Fold this sequence. Notes:
Blueprint: E1 5-13, E2 16-24, E3 28-35, E4 48-51, E5 53-58, E6 60-61, E7 64-65, H1 72-81, E8 85-91, H2 97-112, E9 120-127, H3 148-155, E10 160-165, H4 172-181, E11 185-188, H5 195-203, E12 208-209, H6 225-233, E13 236-239, H7 248-257, E14 260-263, E15 276-280, E16 283-288, E17 291-293, H8 306-315, H9 320-334, E18 351-354, E19 360-365, E20 368-369
Parallel strand pairs: 1-4, 5-8, 8-9, 9-10, 10-11, 11-12, 13-14
Antiparallel strand pairs: 1-2, 2-3, 4-18, 6-7, 15-16, 16-17, 18-19, 19-20
Helix pairs in contact: 5-6, 8-9
InterPro entries: Amidohydro-rel (IPR006680), GlcNAc_6-P_deAcase (IPR003764), Metal-dep_hydrolase_composite (IPR011059), Metal_Hydrolase (IPR032466)
Pfam family, one: Amidohydro_1
Enzyme class: hydrolase
Amino acid sequence: MKNLTQLQGNVLSTQGWVAGTISFGDMIADICGQPLEQAPGDEHGGDYILPGFIDLHVHGGGGRDVMEGGDAAQIISRMHAQHGTTSMLATTMTAPIEELEAALAAIGRACHARPAGTARILGAHLEGPYINPGNLGAQPDFAIAATLEQVDWLRSFAPLKLITIAPEVDGHLDLLRTLTATGMRVQIGHTLGTYEDGVAALEHGAAGFTHLFNAMSGFHHRQPGMAGAALAHAEYAELIPDLLHVHPGAIKAALRAIPRLYCVTDSTAASGMPDGDYMLGRQSVHKCLGGVRLADGTLAGSTLTMDQALRNLVGLGLAIEEASLRVSTYPADYLGMQERGRLKNGCFADIVVLDRQLKLKAVYVEGEQIDLVDA
């Protein structure tokens, strides 16, 4: 039997905080110690030991973009692992079908094996081309209507775990139930749809919303829009908590309204890199002052990492244990993965260790300790 690694500190188990130890190989073997009735205070000392972060919306990092194909996905996953992401979805851009085929083929190969030092790539998030051409955001202008035959063809290249769709596009509403029945999660995004379109999409099987508030019709008290449909009816939605894409007040409103709101980075090739020019699919983007934008000033993904997402949530007033749910457990639940996103015997040993200032000290992906150089 493989020798077990043992960590000592304040362990956020599925039963609450435990001041003690966690033992693991590639899977968690045991958590033992003194249960705490509340979050560990200064009198307890010690590091925080949390579930590894799960990011369901990753375009790039470390200077590389998912749409490049080749080894880009592995290099991206290495950079994000250094910031505590232990599993992720490689996310495509809207593009001609032949470019999507090449990118998804590379993602499919990356899903079969996890090179040392990288996060686990669980599959793909297809963000386009099935979006509204009137609300592209930073997506290139290659939006088309979806067909079951085409989605099935793209699924042959890589596991499609998530797909973003604008439900108001002709034919999409009827397609939602069929796509959901195949096991993928369908999200509403890059849409000009109304509140009523959003409600209808949820009734037809849509499960969530892509980067809530961004690239969707906004909330007004007489025209609640797609954002209003999310706030009124959604169980799940993803949100980018970089404090640029969404105002802190809007984040707090969403946290109160959507029970399992979870966080994504929507990260680009510029993540983990100095200011300058990078590619996002076919688009040239510029990183400056912590943001990534097109030449016209449109926000184009982010430079956020999941460890900073956790710190931002805590800075907004969330307890560490609630912030952890929104960067680990809820995204795992959304994909139906009970063996990730939580610290429990028999789950994958995807673990992050943070100091009392919530700075990363260690990351383990399926029991392998990750090199935190430049983290």
